[in-house]
Amino acid sequence: MRIAALVSAAILALTVSACAKKVPLAKPTSPPPGGPGGASNRPPAPPVPVTEPQPVPVEPTSNTLDTRDLDDINKNSPFQPVFFGYDQAEVSSEGQQILNINAEIMKKQATWVITIEGHADERGTAEYNLALGERRALSARNYLVSLGIPADRLRTVSYGKEFPFDPARTEEAFAKNRRAHFVVTSR
Amino acid sequence: MIRMKTILALTLALGAGLALSAQNPPTPPPQPQSQGEVRLTIVGPPGLPPKLAVPDFLAGGDVATGKLVGQVLWDDLNFEREFYLVPRDTYASIAQPGSLDQIPLDRWKELGVDGLVVGSIRRTGGNVVVQVRLIEVASGRSVFAKEYSGAGANPRFFAHTIADEIHQQQRALRGVARTKLAFTSDRDGERVKGAANSRDIQNIYIADYDGANQRRITATPSLDITPAWSPDTKAMAYTSYRSGFPDILVADLTGRRALAKPANGTPEKQNFLPAWSPDGERLAFMSNRDGNPEIYVVNRDGSGMRRLTNHPENDVTPTWAPSGNQIAFTSNRAGRPQIWIMNADGSGQQKITNESWCDRPTWSPAPFNEIAYASQSGGGYDIRIYEFATRNTRTVTDGIGSNESPAFSPNGRHLAFVSTRAGKAQIFTIARDGNGRKQITTLGENRYPNWSN
User: For FRET with B198, which of A42, A66, A167, B85 sits at 20 to 30 Å CA-CA?
Assistant: First the structure.
């Protein structure tokens, strides 16, 4: 149930940012000090956005997360993607909040190995976006490591602009495609 | 298994082509004895290119092959614009002679043609013998005469060989009729298995320079992208996701060597965008192995790994100068992406462009000293060329669609590029002055063109 609540909070946070005309380009915030594994250095829990009460969507409990197969987990992923600004690879403060939630799930599912896919919108050449996607995935990974997730559980792969989540050529679609996307690759 | 089969099939195709060799030429027509008067070059009227005609080759009953070889040769000679090629339909009414020794020169003189390319095709079992002559119409002299024999499976290759040899002999020009294009395509409609959203796989395809004979050469159920022909055209380097992460593979197209991984990738050390040094001994590429996209160089055998850039922003898309002494790349370290150059040891890094967004450089072969790149214009990109001698830039494409990923032909006179002008991303070729744009692909999305030597 706690995970369900966290997930719904993440969905709400996501909805708020996705509805905005532009994904806000918050100034990059340095990851909190302290290396991997330092539980005492963990940042405070993220503030929950203030919104209208919403029905809690039916989400998998941690119990079913333990038993579902990988494809099933990834089709209804407990992880929320992190979005980036145009030609940006720094994790925004909204992105940090999402990563804080993702990190909590990763700590509960301590055997999972997660691949962080870096994606880009269609602007910029296909070649350049391979580098941009790589830096986005690495930024998300570095932040998760700073929260105490062991580096060897986090892989990165850049797909540049090859696999858009929304193929439309609109600002809204571009914003959806500039993301770090989380895939469970072993458990 | 499929991959090996496709590569082996390619090997056979290339091998058949390479086996084609010029035989002893037939007895050439007697040449005048007085040395001073021998002229082997067809000339046109003062200030104008020579006018050439290329009628159908004589092919006995095989009219279609005779027509095909004539048309392909006409196209090949027209491509370099060194000659004025008289449209073939204007001489369709001139009846084919019985043999190459019975050319009705008067009819060709009436047409105002300076040079006439005539040929014959004779099948002997599985083999084909092709004879060709370039005749100076005014004198009736044959200034170029050759006989070729080879496998008959691909008659276009005879035309390409003749075109290259005529360009070499008549204009001292290295033609590109026998070169090939590599590119990626999703045309087979295969999807990545198990992905949360629908993902089309892309694999590597090759084609003749004019778009004929398109065929797939890799079979990876994910992405094989950014192909790069080795300078000797016997290998293809590319970025493959077949292991679940991007790494550089080098496929030996002769089928003799196993797939090589010169950058020795791991899930932690990923490698992208291989670019061969002009001598084929080294590869420049982009890697995340030190935690950020940087440019590296490695010997083809995997030794001598060396990092060339060191900046927390993106350093990407290396390309070698023809001398092998310099490398150009894209970096956003000074704001938006721009084109930078450096020495091949990483020293002397400097920015050469200053536009809103410049990306994906490709250094021209000699004799030109230029860099083509994609430059932001309007909602998309146009291909622009930076000339070192003058530091001037010029735009090659016309602002229609987005035009990206320029790749020079080996003689530097043409570029392949990707354009969305016709809807989906497709490969086009264009002359370096922006003339003669030609669409090469039509099926699916096609990107990352690369032009063989």
Answer: A66
Sheet of B51-53, strands arranged across: B21-22, B141-151, B127-136, B115-124, B51-53, B84-85
Least CB–CB distance from A127: residue in B192, B244, B273: B273
User: CA angle at residue A31 from A30 to A36, to 5 degrees?
Assistant: 150
With cut-offs at 50, 70 and 90, classify the pLDDT of residue A69.
confident
Chain B contact set for A134 (CB, 8 A): 270, 272, 288, 293
The answer to whether residues B189 and B449 touch, using CB atoms and an 8 Å cutoff, is no
Residue (of B280, B244, B364) closest to A158 by Cα position:
B244
What is the residue range of B54's domain?
Answer: 20-28+39-171
Contacts of A157 in chain B (CB under 8 A): 241, 244-246, 270
d(CA A186, CA B242): 17
Whether B52 and B130 map to the same domain: the answer is: yes
Count structural domains, chain B: 2
Q: Are residues B141 and B189 in the same domain?
A: no
Q: What is the mean pLDDT of residues B218-222?
A: 94
The reported pTM is 0.84
Sign of CA dihedral B11, B192, B185, B68: positive
Residue B362 CA: distances (Å) to CA of B321, B328, B407: 9, 8, 6
Contacts (Cβ under 8 Å, ≥6 apart) of B335: none
Give the CATH superfamily of A2-26+62-186. OmpA-like domain (3.30.1330.60)
